[in-house]
Design brief:
- InterPro entries: HNH, HNH_nuc.
- One of its GO terms (molecular function) is endonuclease activity.
- This is Restriction endonuclease.
- The structure is a single chain.
- This protein is about 40% helix and about 15% strand.
- By secondary structure, it is an alpha/beta fold.
- It starts with a strand and ends with a helix.
């Protein structure tokens, strides 16, 4: 597999928006049309871009506190962590109830521990009912 690298960095938001537009178009196509286009687009060369993005430096102590407080149980679905790390620690991910990118704080009051599925659910759907449940769990 080869990479086709473009030299000028672009904002990550622009790249993500372009991907979302293509995904919406693809979702409306029939399986037959998807296959035809995918076969036409198949290539040994994978394109890549340098992107610029903001990185938020999170406090490792806040994240660890949220995970330990959860005691191996997802604070959204209530199920045990789906697997353990190689060190035997139940795998949960720290989630900021009010996202840092939206002005949320990196505090123990704004963090919870979620299983990978619920963490992704929060970043895809961010349902008000789930957010309210997490606010209560964070207290």
């Amino acid at each position: 597999m080869k990479l086709n690298n473009e030299s000028e960095p672009i904002p990550e938001e622009i790249l993500e928006e372009n991907i979302r537009i293509k995904e919406k178009i693809a979702q409306k196509l029939s399986l037959k049309d998807l296959k035809r286009i995918a076969e036409k687009n198949e290539s040994e060369i994978v394109s890549s871009r340098k992107v610029m993005s903001n990185a938020y430096i999170r406090d490792a102590y806040v994240a660890e506190y949220a995970k330990r407080k959860a005691n191996g149980v997802c604070q959204l679905c209530g199920h045990k962590a789906p697997f353990s790390t190689s060190a035997g620690v139940p795998y949960l991910e720290c989630h900021h109830i009010e996202w840092i990118s939206n002005g949320g704080s990196d505090t123990i009051e704004n963090t919870v521990a979620l299983c990978p599925n619920c963490h992704r659910k929060m970043h895809v759907l961010n349902l008000i009912s789930d957010k309210e449940k997490l606010i209560m769990a964070g207290k």
